[in-house]
Predict the structure of DUF8040 domain-containing protein.
Amino acid sequence: MIMYCYLRKIRSSSVPRIRDNTSSLPGFPYTLELLEGSNTQCQEMMRLSRVAYIEICNHFKQLEEKMAIFLHVISHNDRVIKVKRRFQHATHIVHKYFSRGFEWNDGV
């Protein structure tokens, strides 16, 4: 116990930490700041150009919807017609997402 108190005292009296995160914005607003700022800043912080970042986000949004359709059909044992109306897609799209066994790399 004495050793713990001693180490804690040493750490508290050591060199103060310098914050690396200087932005006052948290999470989503910070992301918007990066996307609306210069392309150089976006490139430096995310190692992606703004265009590449947006394309990746769109890819995962589409994948997210495919997953929702697939899980909805599996969990509710619904017909394609009901799922078509719920997700507002053509019948062949819903059928494609489900019948291929939910292929992850079908070109989104």
